[in-house]
Design goal:
Blueprint lengths: L4 H8 L14 E5 L15 H13 L4 E5 L2 H4 L8 H16 L3 E5 L4 E2 L2 E2 L17 H18 L5 E5 L15 H16 L7 E3 L5 H4 L7 H6 L4 E3 L8 H5 L4 H4 L1 H12 L7 E3 L14 H12 L5 E7 L29 H15 L9 E5 L14 H11 L5 E4 L6 H6 L4 E3 L3
Parallel strand pairs: 1-2, 1-10, 2-3, 3-6, 6-7, 8-9, 9-10, 11-12, 11-13
Antiparallel strand pairs: 4-5
Helix pairs in contact: 2-4, 4-5, 5-6, 11-12, 12-13
Length: 427
């Protein structure tokens, strides 16, 4: 059975939602990492292998996958987009439909699992800043238009995302916050051109966007641009799991916290938030603790009224025959590299089934902790920061605190729209 994206995506484009009308059925999925050859499998795409992987994913009761092609293979020259590569991607979307899975497609990869993938026309003697060079930006926009044209008619398409954690590329492509805004606006507009209105156009960033002092990808860019907000709350950000322990409340409530933080930065109090990446990387989360981490993470996030869904990272372990990955990348899958379901897969599947059988209906968070920071002090809201630790203290003691920005802490109409009755400030 295909879970139609129409209702889910449509709610993301709604500007206001009555308090008594919660976001429809939560979505639960996984980021698809091919078992055979990792993303290098795009060099010799094998539909039989993909069909096998997708059947395993669907067998867990998940309803969608997020998929990634490689930018150099899609667009090896600035003015050449390979039809064969686009057709491969469309075929993968169709194979997912056969398995009963909806699909979000990321366009510009970009960054995947510690590797960066650039077309040669952006590198070496031909170096172009991918965020600021007008011709490079125009080429990426054309790639997103092309993907939109190719995929818009697929009924199981959730939407298109600009790429995976593009802010990982800033080290080699210096950019300002204003330039990031122009880049995102340009690509999102191009992405939207050929998509039906009920499909999503989104972008993603890793946690530096929320916690990194003066990082050029800002919380506002994540929370204002695109049809919903995506968050990637990783337990290694700010050394969270090592700082507090793998079984700590700080770790088990991290995705919930990220969702509430994203809600605070949104203009629309009802803007949906998608926990688009979260996972159990060893040794930060030992294998023995991974099932409980998955259960707690998903259940706690489901207590957020604006949650769109949770997409686990990732489907399959990286095979150890492939070299030079950070150790944690080899163990992140729900399935091992032989295709066997791991205990974390069983825990996630059971938790999803329970939440579908008895869907949560979160009450408003009546107390909010005020976040007062500047772009240069954003780290206060990350692991180790005073704000983060106070929010977690309140949560551990049984409260369900919302996050509210200092600029809106006295806005009665806004607070009422979120159901907030009391605001408290850091001690």
């Amino acid at each position: 059975m295909i879970h139609s994206p129409t209702t889910r995506a449509g709610c993301a484009r709604t500007c206001a939602r009555p308090e008594e009308d919660p976001i429809p059925t939560l979505r639960f999925g996984v980021n698809y990492t091919p078992r055979h050859g990792w993303f290098h499998s795009w060099h010799d795409f094998d539909p039989a292998h993909a069909r096998e992987d997708l059947a395993q994913i669907a067998g867990l009761g998940l309803d969608h996958v997020r998929v990634f092609h490689l930018w150099p293979l899609l667009q090896p020259n600035r003015t050449l987009i390979r039809t064969a590569a686009v057709d491969q991607l469309a075929q993968l979307v169709d194979l997912a439909a056969e398995a009963g899975l909806d699909v979000l497609v990321d366009g510009v990869q970009g960054h995947l699992s510690s590797f960066d993938f650039y077309p040669e026309w952006t590198r070496s003697w031909h170096h172009r800043n991918v965020f600021t060079d007008p011709e490079a930006v125009a080429a990426q926009a054309e790639l997103m238009r092309t993907l939109g044209r190719a995929l818009a008619g697929r009924p199981n398409l959730i939407g298109l995302q600009l790429g995976n954690e593009l802010n990982n590329l800033v080290e080699h492509n210096p950019v300002t916050a204003d330039e990031v805004d122009h880049y995102l606006d340009t690509l999102l507009a191009a992405t939207r051109e050929h998509l039906p209105a009920d499909r999503l156009a989104t972008h993603s960033a890793y946690d530096a966007a929320w916690y990194g002092d003066d990082h050029p990808f800002t919380p506002e860019a994540s929370a204002h641009k695109g049809d919903l907000t995506t968050v990637h709350p990783w337990v290694f950000s700010g050394d969270c799991a090592r700082r507090y322990g793998p079984r700590s409340p700080q770790v088990q409530h991290l995705a919930e916290y990220g969702t509430e933080l994203a809600t605070a930065y949104a203009v629309d109090p009802a803007r949906p938030v998608w926990v688009q990446e979260t996972g159990a990387p060893e040794p930060h989360i030992p294998a023995a603790d991974a099932p409980e981490f998955a259960r707690a993470t998903v259940r706690n996030a489901a207590g957020c009224a604006n949650l769109w869904g949770v997409t686990w990272w990732c489907s399959h372990d990286v095979d150890r025959s492939l070299a030079d990955y950070p150790e944690l990348e080899y163990t992140l899958g729900l399935f091992d590299s032989a295709g066997r379901a791991k205990p974390i897969a069983e825990a996630l599947a059971a938790t999803v089934a329970e939440l579908r059988a008895q869907p949560p209906s979160p009450a408003p968070r009546e107390t909010a902790l005020v976040l007062d920071c500047t772009p240069g002090t954003r780290s206060v809201s990350g692991p180790g920061g005073a704000y983060f630790e106070e929010w977690m203290r309140m949560r551990t003691e049984g409260a369900r605190p919302a996050v509210v920005l200092a600029a809106r802490a006295d806005d009665g109409e806004y607070l009422a729209a979120r159901g907030i009755k009391d605001v408290v400030r850091l001690p």
